[in-house]
Every structure is written in C-alpha cells, then in structure tokens.
C-alpha cells in the first residue's frame, strides 16, 4: 500500500514540474514568437510596398573626348635608290646611318657595254657627218637631188641624238642622293652586278628624312567627324613612358575605307633630336570636340532585354522607364545622345520586377572598398599590347 502511494506521489510531482516548465515556456515563447511574426509581417509589407533600389545620377558629357589609336610611323620623305645604267659597282661611299646631302655620290658603276655603245655611236655620227658634208659640198648643179641632201642631214641629226642619249646614260654611272637625309639601307658591294630594273630587291640604297615623322592613324567612323587639320594630338611610344610628343593633324583621306569604316589620318611629329625612329610602334591620342552634347551614364543602368534601349529613373519616389538613344560605348560608361538631360536618378542593375509608377526607396551608389592585400601591378604606359582606349575627358 505504501509503495503504491509513493509511486503516485512521484508521478504527481513529475506532472506538476512539467506543467510548471511548460507554462513558463509558453509565457516566454509565445510573446516573442508573436513579436517576431509581427515584425516579419511588417518588414514584408514594407519590402513589398517600397523596395529599395540603388541609384546614381546621369552626368552631362564633357565637351571633349579623348581617343587613343595605334599608328603606323614613317619618315617625312623616303625613297629607294635604283641603278639607272647596267654595269658593275666600282665603289660605294655611303653606309647605313650616314647623313647625306642632296646630289652626294653614293656609289659609282662601271658600264663596259654602255661604253662600247658610246664608241659605236661616235663612229656612226662621224660617218653620217662625213656623208652629209660630202653631199653638201657638191657644187655641180643637178648632181644630187635635194631629197638626198635632206636624207643625209636627217641621218646626221639622228646619230647626234643617239650619241647624246648614250652620253646622258653615262652620267648615271654616278649614283647620287635625290635629297638630304639618312641612309637606312645599303644593298651593294664592290663588284655587284646592277641593272635598270626596279623589281623588289634590286634597290641599292634607301634614303629617309627623319627630322619630322608621319604617323598614319585609322580613325573609326564615330570619331571621324571631329578630325580637323591643324588640331593637336599626343604621340606616344613605349620607349618614352609618360613623355608624350606634340603632334599635329595635317590631312586626312576625306573618305572612309569601305572595308574598315575608318578614316586614314596623317599626323606629323617633329623629331629634331632624332629620338623617334620610323617604323616604331606608336599610339596617337586625340582630343576631339564633341559634335553634339550628350549625357554619360553607367553601363549597368541600361535595362536588359527589350527591343529598345531604356533606363529606369526615379521621379518623385516612383519608377519611370525612359527610352534613350545610346552613342559611343566607353566600357563601364555609355554615351546617351537622346532621352536624358543630365541629373536624373538612374536605377543601377534594375530588377525585372520593377514596374512603371511603382513606389521605391532609394540608396545612393557607393563604390566598393578596395580589397586588402598588395596593390595590383600598374599597367605599362603606352603598352603595345593594350587595346584601343577611348574615354570622355573629365
């Protein structure tokens, strides 16, 4: 009997303890659960009613745009020197790197075949002269006809002309510089056989003027309207990092290449100290005035998809989709020629769920902090492997 009472009392105590702990749990958990549920509902209601979007202002485009393009560099004047008479090189007196003057002798050629032709022409001329003098000295009237005398005189004149032509060719035995400059190629040696051919590889010398260089640039169509003769530019070469050379646009082709849609433009660069070399890889940086005012926007403000370009703006706390006409693409920025005036709040990375007239909360865009660690390697100035870069001037 006592054992049964003890067992009942034990389970009663356990039941009372469970009831007490359960009540305490409910008293502590239920209000907290209700509070969290209410807070979640309020947060969901706020989120559903006024989502927060990140915005940035559209900026008016500057008046000037810079564009950097690769250039093909050549001397101001350059030419190959060929032989004008067949023969063998007797001597040469100018080597690569040497400065020469206009008319200076570069090499001399012996012309044995031409010399024989000159001797033959002299003999023919003497014979023609003798024949003409003999006929002209006949005093007997009617002994010779006037036609015979005219033929002899004509033959004498022909032989004179033939001799003069050969003598003029003998003057080409001395190969001279056509203008003052620097010898950049020499392809002759004493005893070399030369001919009057101008086939590739038959040139004897190459002369170049390097006091001023010409840089040829292919300007894309969208920048071509801004190219003007007389405008200044920067000439950039990797060997002189951070030291642009002043250049000037002197002319352009006046028409676009139909294959590349580019405008061939010539830029001249003074080179009085000979620091720059023809044939070097170079870039030309233009400072181009804008042909029409525009607006610059972040590239991620463009609404993805659709058949027309548009952006999502925030006006009076509500979403408004604005159609735009885009211009040049600067990578992380876009030029807008129509649709924006500047100063509009643009939604960055607009979500597809945003609808016209929807109320939103805005948050200004802040650039992300740079990650900790060593700084990234600086790019090489005027890197030949760098792509063409164009950007608005700030």
Topology:
Blueprint: H1 2-49, E1 52-57, E2 59-60, E3 64-81, E4 87-92, E5 99-100, E6 105-110, H2 112-136, H3 146-170, E7 174-176, E8 181-186, E9 193-194, E10 205-220, E11 232-236, E12 245-256, E13 262-270, E14 281-289, E15 295-298, E16 310-315, E17 318-323, E18 325-329, E19 333-338, E20 345-347, E21 361-364, E22 389-392
Parallel strand pairs: 1-21
Antiparallel strand pairs: 1-20, 2-15, 3-10, 3-14, 3-22, 4-6, 4-9, 5-8, 6-7, 8-10, 10-13, 11-12, 11-14, 12-13, 15-19, 16-17, 18-19
Family: Belongs to the membrane fusion protein (MFP) (TC 8.A.1) family.
Domain CzcB-like barrel-sandwich hybrid: 79-197
Biased composition (Pro residues): 368-379
Can you describe this structure?
This is RND family efflux transporter MFP subunit. Residues 357-394 are annotated as: Disordered. Residues 217-286 form the CusB-like beta-barrel domain. The chain has 394 residues and is an alpha+beta fold. It has four domains: 14-49; 53-61 and 293-367 and 379-392, conserved putative lor/sdh protein from methanococcus maripaludis s2 fold (Beta Barrel); 67-74 and 209-289, Efflux pump adaptor protein, beta barrel domain (Elongation Factor Tu (Ef-tu), domain 3, Beta Barrel); 83-194, no CATH class. It has three helices and 22 strands. The chain has helices spanning 2-49, 112-136, 146-170; strands spanning 52-57, 59-60, 64-81, 87-92, 99-100, 105-110, 174-176, 181-186, 193-194, 205-220, 232-236, 245-256, 262-270, 281-289, 295-298, 310-315, 318-323, 325-329, 333-338, 345-347, 361-364, 389-392. The strands form five sheets. Strands 3-10-13-12-11-14 form a six-stranded antiparallel beta barrel. Helix 2 runs antiparallel to helix 3 (146-170). The model has no long low-confidence stretch (mean pLDDT 83).
